[in-house]
């Protein structure tokens, strides 16, 4: 498949996910992320992440205009990863969520392993987290994410080349003895600027409240900067 | 104490830069067969392939080469040429049991001395020499005396604390010629 066909396929996926969003109660916005990764030595690495949410569309509430800018929150997280195998690591960390009127904290535990199928890389992430806040009961989540990277030219992604990345994740949560299920599907187009920097543009679709038949969708236009 | 910390921090930054500088720079592009030198295409035609031939241009720090990848006799082949189409080498994937037992035992002894634990990921047999001799060796599935044979092995090796991928070259007799630590591509965008 040449690069033109690959880009066309990616475009179709992006458009189809937009069509799904158009049929259900939807919120949409921007989700810019800065992701800094630093290898301390051959075993340990640190990941610092800054992410913020900005709504530009919201039809959850009956408003005169659904299009309205609304700053939602910012997340700051720090994770420490330890390599436990050639392609696997255990990650522990902490996240602080800052909202205009509240602050909450999350502890994070992850196990990540990578596989390779021909010329695309796949990463699996099994994670648990616990969110603590003063106004709500603690929320416990168990999640599994699969991320696949497909080079858009050549056998692997090199500097100054584009790639397609697709993340899909299932999140189980329990809060106040209430169970919920959420799905995420995130197609991204990425570009490797140089050895250190990558930039990605994507659409993060979150299907919330999957089991109580009142599914709502939140779609984020994501801009990720990895350094 | 503060000065010591700053020196350590600068040291980390410096060593991470050096580590990156040591990475093997290599880029490959898929290319159309129309732009491949005729002599390279003729060489590949002389080996009957079981599959479609994929052509690549590979750029490294010191070299630009043209590479053909295909299947022959149910084996994965990779043939490298210079930009003028002159044959550089042929490599193909083999199984452990295809190595002569004495040669394999020699390799095994060396690997046991290097690693606490090890496991093969990929074994490739290398042929280099005159085009005609290399083609004959491939066709007859037996290397002729006039070509150089070596084994390029990718393995997962565990030393005291960590596991790493290595590329190790052995000669025809099973003596180690070269060892390289494979620096894996960063995957922070897939993991975090």
What does this structure look like?
The complex is a heterodimer of chains A (227) and B (192). By secondary structure, chain A is mainly beta. Chain A has one domain. Chain A contains 1 helix and 11 strands, in the order H-E-E-E-E-E-E-E-E-E-E-E. Chain A has one helix at residues 3-22; strands at 26-39, 44-58, 67-85, 88-99, 102-117, 120-133, 139-151, 162-175, 178-192, 198-208, 216-226. In chain A, strands 1-2-3-4-5-6-7-8-9-10-11 form an 11-stranded mixed beta barrel. A 9-stranded antiparallel beta sheet of chain B has the order 1-2-3-4-5-6-7-8-9. Chain B has helices spanning 2-21, 38-45, 101-114, 131-140, 188-191, and strands spanning 26-31, 54-60, 64-72, 75-81, 87-94, 117-128, 148-158, 163-171, 176-181. The longest helix of chain B is centred in the first third of the chain and has 20 residues, at 2-21. Chain B is globular, with a radius of gyration of 20 Å. Chain B has 2 domains: 24-85, Nuclear Transport Factor 2, Chain: A, CATH 3.10.450; 89-184, Roll (Nuclear Transport Factor 2, Chain: A), CATH 3.10.450. By secondary structure, chain B is an alpha+beta fold. Classes of the chains: A mainly beta (227), B alpha+beta (192).
Feature tags:
heterodimer; A: 227 residues; mainly beta; eleven-stranded mixed barrel; globular; B: 192 residues; alpha+beta; Nuclear Transport Factor 2, Chain: A; 2 domains; nine-stranded antiparallel sheet; 5 helices; 9 strands
Q: Order the strands across the largest sheet of chain B as they lie in space.
A: 1-2-3-4-5-6-7-8-9
- Tally of discrete structural domains of chain A: 1
Order of strands side by side in the largest beta sheet of chain A?
1-2-3-4-5-6-7-8-9-10-11
> How confident is the prediction overall: mean pLDDT of chain B?
84
Tally of DSSP β-strands of chain A: 11
Order of helices and strands of chain B: HEHEEEEHEHEEEH
Instruction: Please report the distance between the alpha carbons of the first and last residues of chain A.
Output: 30 Å
> Per CATH, what is the topology of the largest domain in chain B?
Nuclear Transport Factor 2, Chain: A
Q: Biggest interface and which pair forms it?
A: A-B, 38 and 25 residues
Please identify, by name, the CATH architecture of the largest domain in chain B. Roll
How many β-strand runs of chain B? 9
Structural class of chain A: mainly beta
Q: Per the principal axes of the C-alpha atoms, what is the gross shape of chain B?
A: globular
Shape of chain A: globular
Helix content of chain A: under 10%
Order of helices and strands of chain A: HEEEEEEEEEEE
CATH class of the largest domain in chain B: Alpha Beta
In percent, how helical is the residue content of chain B? 25-40%
User: Low-confidence runs of chain A (pLDDT<50, min 5 residues)?
Assistant: none
What gap, in angstroms, lies between the N and C termini of chain B? 34 Å
């Amino acid at each position: 498949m040449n690069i033109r066909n690959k880009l066309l396929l990616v475009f179709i996926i992006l458009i189809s996910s937009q069509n799904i969003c158009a049929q259900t109660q939807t919120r949409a916005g921007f989700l810019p992320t800065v992701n800094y990764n630093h290898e301390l030595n051959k075993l340990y690495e640190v990941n610092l992440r800054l992410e913020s949410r900005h709504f530009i569309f919201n039809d959850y509430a009956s408003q005169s205009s659904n299009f309205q800018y609304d700053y939602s929150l910012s997340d700051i997280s720090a994770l420490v990863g330890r390599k436990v195998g050639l392609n696997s690591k255990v990650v522990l960390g902490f996240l602080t969520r800052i909202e205009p009127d509240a602050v909450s904290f999350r502890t994070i535990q992850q196990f990540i392993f990578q596989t390779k199928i021909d010329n695309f890389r796949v990463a699996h992430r099994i994670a648990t987290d616990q969110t603590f806040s003063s106004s709500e009961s603690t929320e416990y989540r168990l999640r599994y994410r699969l991320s696949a990277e497909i080079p858009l030219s050549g056998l692997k992604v090199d500097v100054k080349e584009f790639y397609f990345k697709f993340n899909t994740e299932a999140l189980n949560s329990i809060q106040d003895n209430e169970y919920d299920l959420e799905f995420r599907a995130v197609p991204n187009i990425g570009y490797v600027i140089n050895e250190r920097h990558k930039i990605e543009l994507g659409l993060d679709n979150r299907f919330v409240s999957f089991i109580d038949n009142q599914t709502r969708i939140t779609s984020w236009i994501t801009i990720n900067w990895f350094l | 104490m503060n000065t010591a910390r700053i020196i350590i921090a600068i040291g980390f930054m410096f060593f991470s830069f050096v580590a990156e500088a040591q990475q093997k720079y290599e880029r490959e592009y898929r290319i159309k067969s129309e732009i491949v030198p005729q002599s390279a295409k003729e060489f590949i035609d002389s080996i009957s392939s079981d599959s479609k031939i994929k052509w690549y241009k590979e750029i490294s720090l010191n070299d630009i080469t043209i590479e053909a990848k295909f299947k022959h006799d149910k084996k994965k082949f990779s043939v490298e040429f210079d930009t003028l189409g002159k044959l550089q080498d042929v490599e193909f994937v083999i199984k452990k049991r295809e190595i002569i037992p004495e040669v394999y035992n020699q390799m095994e002894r060396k690997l046991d001395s290097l690693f606490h634990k090890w496991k093969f990921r990929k074994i490739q047999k290398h042929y280099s020499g005159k085009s005609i001799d290399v083609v004959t060796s491939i066709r007859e599935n037996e290397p002729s005396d006039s070509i150089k044979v070596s084994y390029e092995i990718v393995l997962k090796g565990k030393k005291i604390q960590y596991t790493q991928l290595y590329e190790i070259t052995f000669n025809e007799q099973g003596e180690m010629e070269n060892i390289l630590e494979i620096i894996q591509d960063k995957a922070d965008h897939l993991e975090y």
